[in-house]
Amino acid sequence: MGKAIMEQNQVRPLSAVKTGEKARLARVDAGRGLNSRLASMGFVPNAEITVVSNGHPGPFVIIIKDVKMVLGRGVAHKIMVK
Amino acid sequence: MENEFGTPNFCLLWHRAGPVHMKRIIVALVGNPNSGKSSLFNMFTGAHQHVGNYPGVTVEKKEGRCIYGQYEITFVDLPGTYSLTAYSTEELITRGFILHERPDVVVDVVDASNIERNLYLGTQLIEMNVPLVFAFNMSDLAGRRGLLFDLEQLSGLLEARIVPTVGNRGEGRTALLDAIIETSREGRKTRIHEVRYGVEIEEGLAWIETAVAQNEEPLAQRYGARWMAVKLLEQDEDVLKRVQQQETLNTVNRSVSHLRSIFRDEPEIVMADRRYGFISGACQETIKNSVERRHDTSDTIDAIVTHRILGLPIFLFLMYLVFFMTFTMGRYPMHWLERFFGWLAAVVNGLWPAGSVPWLHSLLVDGVISGVGGVLVFLPNILLLFLAVALLEDSGYMARAAFVMDRIMHKIGLHGKSFIPMLIGFGCSIPAIMGTRILENRRNRLTTIMIIPLMSCGARLTIYALFIPAFFPPHWQGPVLWIVYVTGIALGVICAKVLRMTLLKGETLSFVMELPPYRMPTGKAMLIHTWQRGWMYLRKAGTVILVASIILWAAANYPKPDHEALAGLDEQQAQQATLRYSVVGRLGQAIEPVLEPLGFDWRIGTALIGAIPAKELFVSQMGIVYATGREKGHALSLRERLQSDYTPLVGFCVMLFVLIGAPCVATVAVTRQETGSWRWAAFQFIGLTVLAYTVTLVVFQLGRIWT
Fold first, then answer.
1. CB–CB of B511 and A72 under 8 A?
2. What average pLDDT does the segment B631-643 reach?
3. What are the angstrom distances between the C-alpha of B236 and each of B196, B279, B701?
C-alpha cells in the first residue's frame, strides 16, 4: 500500500518537469485518438523525454527519440512521466 | 475495385504509355512528415509530375514518372504519416493505396538522422509484408551528427534493401533505382523476422488469427490473417467495420479486455511499445552514435522565433514580406501582362475590318482576350506567392509559425497554419485557397477554404475605392474601410466556429508538432513546387474561368435590341440600352423585388450579376448601366450619379454585399478543384450569398429605422 502511494507520488505531468531535465514516460491520460497518435510519434512507456524548454512563458519544447517536438500545454498536462 | 477502407478508388493519372518494350513498375513513396520524401520524389521525377487531389478528399495526390534502363517507373508520392492507423484521412489513404493498388515496390523514406522514430512506420510496412526498400535519406546530416550505420546487418534484420540517399543533392539515385528493380523482381517473400509482441499479446493474436481464418476467409486471403489480427487487436475502426461474423468480434473483444486487465493499458499502446522495442533491438547492434547531442544553432533560433513576445512580431514581419513579395513585386509583371493584353486587344481592333462580323469581334476582344487576360494577370502573383511559401516550408520555419499562431487560431477551431492562407486571402482568394494545401488535416483545410472569401480581396478594394469617397466625408473614409475589412474577419471567425461545430465537427487536434531542423532550401525543389502550382492554376482554373467569362460576355451582350430602339442614342446610351436588354440586364431587373429590401435597384442588381466572373467588374458594369463610359475621366461623374441616386446607407450595404456574397467564378473553380467536389463549391457560393443577403438586410432595415 505504502509502495503504491510512493509510486503515485513519483508520477507527475510532463508540464511539471523543468527545463533541461529528463524524465521517462509513464502513460498518457487522453482518449484513444491522441494516445495512438502520440504512441506512433514515439511516446511509448519508458521513452526518455528531455525538456528543452518548459515555457512559462514560451513554448513547451521537448526531445523524444532524437526528434524535437513542440507541444501545446494541454498535451503536456496529459503526458504523465516518472 | 470497390471502395474499401474509406479511400476513394484510385486510378493512375498517368495513362500515357511509354514505348511498348518497357517494363512498368509502380512504386509507392511513404515516410514520415519531414523525412525529405518530396525531395526524393523530385529527384526521381524532376518536372514530370502530376499533382491533383484524391477524389472527394482534400489530400494532395502526386505522381511522376521516370525512365531507367528497360523500366518505366511510376512514383506515387503518398501523404506523409507517422503510422498506418485509421485515425486520419492521410493514414487511410496511404494504407489503402498499399493494400488495394498493390504497388510493385514500397519505398519507405527514412530520415537517417532519427532512425528510431522513422522506422516505426517501417515496422507496419513489414507487417503488411509488402516488397519494401528503405531509403535512408539525409544520410549526410546523419553522418555529421555522428551516426554510424552497419547497413548490411540492419538490412538483414529488416529483411529489406537499404540505400543511403541525399534527396536534395540527388545522391543515391542509381543505387535506389537498382534496389527498386531488384526488389520488384523478387516480389513478396516470406519473412523470418517479424515484430513479436510478447507472450500475452501473441496469444491474443493467435486466437484472433484463428477466428479470422475460420470466419472471414475472403478478408484473410486478401489482407493476411496476421495483419487482420494485429489491426483488430488495435481496435482499428476501419478493419472492425469489415468483419462479417459476430463471432470474430466476440473473440476480439474478449482478447482486448483480457489484455487490458493484464497491462492496465490499451493493447494498441502496448503494441506500439513493442514495435519500438523491435526497432531498438535492430538498431542497438547496427547503429553507433559517436557524438552526444548538444545544444545546437537550431535550438538558439527556435528560442527566438518561438519566443512568447518576439515570436508573433517576427511571424507578422515575415508574413508582411510574403505579402509584399506577392503583391508589390508581382504588380510589375502583372502590369506588363495587362498592357500586353490591352495591346493585343488594340491590335485585333486595328486589324479587324470595320463592321464585319461584329459579334465575333466582340467575342474575341471582350470575351476571349479579356477572359484569358483576366486569368493570366494573376499568374505572377501566384508564382511569387508559392515561391515564398515553398521557402518558408522547406527552410523549416513553417512549423514554428504554426506554433506561434496556434494559440489564437485554436480558439476558432483552426490550426496555426490556417492563418497563412487567410492572410493571403486579403490579396486574392485564388492563391489563398490553393495555399491551404499546407494544412494536413482535412477538416481544418475545408473550414479554411470556406471562409477565405470573407477575407476582403484586392479586387473588392476597387469597389470600395469607388463607393467610399462617393458617400462618406474624408474623415470617415478610413474608418469605413476598416469596418468593412473587420466585418469580413469577424464573419470569417464566426463561420469557422459554426462550421467546426456543425458540418465539420471533430476534435481539434491537440497541438503536437515536430520541429524539423532548419535546412537551406534548394533552388530546384522550390522551382519545382512553384511551377507545379502555377501550371495547375493555368490549366484547371484557367479553362473554367475562360468558359465562364465567355458565357457572361454572351449574357451581357445578347439578345440585342432592335436598331430602331437604339436610333438617336449616343454610343454610351446605346451601350446602356444593350445591357438593359440583355440577359444580364433582364436578370438584374427580375431580381429587383428580391434586392429591394436591401435597398438595391435593378442597376445594382445588374452590376452584381455582371461582377460574378470577377468582382472588379462591378465598377465597369455600374459604369455601363449609368452610361458614363469606362474611361477614367468619367469616373468622377459616376461617383456623382451614385451620390444623387443612393443614400450612404445603400452605398455601405452594397459594399457589405460584395464583401460577403457570391465569390467570383475563379474562387468557385478553385474551391471545386481543391475540395474535389462541386458540392463544397456550391455550398460556399450559396452559403456566402445567403449570409450576405441576411447581413445586408439586417443592416439596411436597422439603418433605415436609425436614420
1. yes
2. 64
3. 19, 22, 54
Domain A2-81, CATH among 1.10.40.30, 3.30.1330.10, 1.10.10.10, 2.30.30.90: 2.30.30.90
All three cell numbers of B360, joined, read 465575333
Helices B665-675 and B542-557 cross at an angle (nearest 10°) of 150
Residues in chain B: 707
Q: What are phi and psi of B569, to 5 degrees?
A: -95, 150
For chain A, the maximum distance between any two Cα atoms, rounded to a whole number of angstroms, is 39
Q: Does A69 touch chain B (CB under 8 A)?
A: yes
Q: Are B693 and B599 in contact (CB under 8 A)?
A: no
Rounded to two decimals, the ipTM of the complex is 0.83
Q: Count CB-CB contacts under 10 A for residue B397.
A: 18
Q: Give the pairing of strands B49-53 and B60-68.
A: antiparallel
A59 with B306: Cβ contact below 8 A: yes
Verify cis geometry, omega within 30 degrees of 0, for the bond prior to B333. Answer: no
Answer whether B513 sits within 8 Å of A53, measured CB to CB: no
DSSP string of B476-529?
Answer: HHHHHHHHHHHHHHHHHHHHHHHHHHTTT--PPPP-EEE-PPP-PPPHHHHHHH
Strand partners, B135: B109, B163
Q: Which residue of A has its CA nearest to B272?
A: A39
Reference B251, options B287, B209, B283; nearest CA is B209
Q: What is the DSSP string of B458-488?
A: HHHHHHHHHHHHHHS-HHHHHHHHHHHHHHH
The structure's pTM equals 0.73
B269 touches chain A (CB under 8 A): yes
- The overall average pLDDT reported for chain B is 83
Q: Residue B480 and residue B483: Cα distance in Å, rounded? A: 5
Phi, psi of B128 (to 5 degrees): -80, -5
Q: Using the Cα atoms of residue B362, residue B368, residue B369 and residue B370 in order, give the sign of their dihedral.
A: positive
Q: Which domains are seen in chain B, by residue range?
A: 4-186 (3.40.50.300), 199-289 (1.10.287.1770), 311-459+502-526 (no CATH), 544-706 (no CATH)
DSSP element (H, E) containing B281 = helix B267-286
Model confidence pLDDT, tens digit, residues B180-236: 999 999 877 777 778 889 899 999 999 999 999 999 888 888 888 899 999 999 999
Q: What angle do CA B382, B440, B12 make, to 5 degrees?
A: 80
From A79, A50, A77, A46, select the one nearest A66 (Cα to Cα). Answer: A50
Helices (H), B17-134: 37-45, 89-96, 115-128
With 90 as the cut, is the pLDDT of residue B694 above it? yes
Residue labelled with grid coordinates 537550431: B298
Q: Which residues of B touch A46 (CB under 8 A)?
A: 273
Question: Taking CB atoms and an 8 Å cutoff, what residues of chain B touch A40?
Answer: 82-83, 85, 120-121, 272
CB B75 within 8 A of CB B113: no
Cell of B136: 535512408
Task: Write the pLDDT tens digit of every residue in B589-606.
Answer: 899 999 999 999 988 998
Q: What cell does A65 get?
A: 527519440
> What is the residue-wise DSSP string for B541-561?
IHHHHHHHHHHHHHHHH-SPP
Residue B358 grid coordinates: 461584329
Which cell numbers hold the place of B36? 525529405
Query: Helix or strand or coil: residue B62?
Result: strand
Residue B89: name the closest of B432, B499, B504 by CA: B504
In 3-state terms, what secondary structure has residue B103?
A: coil
For residues B170 and B370, give the distance between their C-alpha atoms in angstroms, rounded to a whole number. Answer: 43
pLDDT in tens, B311-326: 889 988 887 787 677 7
Q: What are phi and psi of A12, to 5 degrees?
A: -145, 160
Nearest to A61 among B117, B235, B302 (CB): B302
Report CB contact under 8 Å: B403, A59. yes
